[in-house]
Amino acid sequence: GASKWDVRQKVWDYLEAHGLAEFPRPVHRRIPNFKGSHQACCSIKELDVFSGAREIKVDPDKPLEGVRLAALQARKTLLVPTPRLRTGLFNKIVPPSGATKEILRICATSRGIKEYSVPVGLDGKARVDLVVVGSVAVSEKGWRIGKGEGYADMEYAMMVSMGAVQETTPVITIVHDCQVVDIAEELLDDHDLTVDYILTPTRTIKTNCKRPKPQGIIWRKVSYEMLEKIPILKSLRYREKQTGKDVTLQDEHSDLANAITPAALNEKAMAGNTRPQAAAGSAQIGQHDVESDALSPGLEGSGVITTVYVGNIPPSVRVSELKCALREFHAIPLRLNWQGAQHRAFLDYKDKATAESAVSSLKGLSLGGNTLRVELAKIQRNKGQVEINSEK
């Protein structure tokens, strides 16, 4: 009858009560660090799945520091998820040329992850050969319980979605012996990640787990709140929707109940307006590389328009694809100024707050294999001006 939370609490309490907990303390509500974690991490070097791996994803938790160091020492590509997935999915740790052992040790720490990493977007073509996650509790059958926020499960599902892992990609967890416990199978859900190997200070356990790992993102369990917290989810959702997958969210019904909103009205305007506004320097779609599409001409010249710059647009992407994405992310502008030859576009919004909301919504958006650069334009338009000729 124990719940997942009961299991977590029991493990956390035991580690603290028996002097097994290490910094950061207390271990409650964390992936716990424990005495002997470095020893447990070092045993990964004896596994063939580690020796044969070229690209390894390791969570940023403190007890996994030894695995990150082992990967760097073996000159493997090390990917670490960004904190709470706020700014993307991975950071790649890139030690400086000729790094000493001491520098590699720093690179494996939380400080090193910040100082020696570069972001890897959806277009980064990651191919992960081995996944290493932290756990609060795990069973010898390979059933895992995390700290309750679901990030490790979501990271794995996102990797499946972007093609970074396969069904055969092994998953390893590093725990203290006391964290290996019996877990009732009814506690597991279809989004829960299972593990293939458990490394402790005294044992290496091959679980031979037969329970399937997540096959991708289960959108019916994703909320709007989660989309806002993890911007890269928006791009993955858009990408999967384009392939015809059902990406209905957990609280989609509430969105339908509020469908008649200003954003919805703007969407109708965008859908119904296929003719570009006749304006200086503008041209019809398909004839030239600039299009100035006035979506709400009645608001033109109000003097409060705020412009958003969208850059890094691949040559293969058409303006219609960007429009579709803007509708999908509820970031519909008053006017879209398309400059395809310069790989950019400018979006006009009625005020700064609306523009900033659009930037937040579009953060992490990927089109045509590129993660777009989205920010407030560095130079804003004057009242009544139609074209923007500089992003600087």
Q: Can you give the helix content as a percent range?
A: 25-40%
Any idea how many domains? Answer: 3
Query: Using DSSP, what is the number of strands?
Result: 17
Low-confidence stretches: 260-290, 295-302, 383-392
Q: What's the number of helices?
A: 13
Distance between the termini: 62 Å
Structural class: alpha+beta
Average pLDDT metric:
83
So what's the overall shape? globular
Any guess at the CATH architecture of the largest domain?
A: 3-Layer(aba) Sandwich
Can you list the strand order of the major beta sheet? Answer: 4-3-2-1-5-8-9-10
Keywords: RNA-binding
Protein name: Methenyltetrahydrofolate synthase domain-containing protein
GO molecular function: RNA binding
Pfam family, one: 5-FTHF_cyc-lig
Task: Please tell me about this protein's structure.
This protein is an alpha+beta fold and 392 residues long. It has 3 domains: 4-206, NagB/RpiA/CoA transferase-like (Rossmann fold), CATH 3.40.50.10420; 219-256, no CATH class; 306-376, 2-Layer Sandwich (Alpha-Beta Plaits). The protein has helices at 4-17, 37-42, 48-51, 65-73, 101-107, 110-115, 151-161, 224-229, 232-242, 252-257, 262-272, 319-328, 352-362, and strands spanning 55-58, 77-81, 90-93, 117-120, 130-134, 137-138, 144-145, 171-174, 197-199, 204-206, 290-294, 306-311, 335-339, 344-349, 366-367, 370-371, 373-376. Helix 4 packs across helix 5. The longest helix has 14 residues, at 4-17. The model is unreliable at 260-290, 295-302 and 383-392 (pLDDT under 50). Keywords: RNA-binding. It comes from Rhynochetos jubatus. Residues 306-379 form the RRM domain. Pfam families: 5-FTHF_cyc-lig, RRM_1.
